[in-house]
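Intended use. Records like the one below are meant for learning the mapping from a protein sequence to its folded structure. Do not use them to infer anything beyond what is encoded.
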Amino acid sequence: MFQDYASCRAAHLRFVERVVASQKVWYLENRGGTASACSNQDTEEGEDSEITILMFWSDRAYATRVKNNGFGD
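Structure written out for the chain above:
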């Protein structure tokens, strides 16, 4: 799902505020490693390049919801 810049910025600020308040971040892992996803990044040549991003959440409930909906192991 694509989001506009303002929505992404608001979500980022909310994440930072929650992490600062709780002093915790949540992530998922299994024997294969830490949960990650692929994304695109523009190169200097103006082309898309696929990169791997690590996934973090500001609350255990958010991480649990993602685990239950797609990262079952």
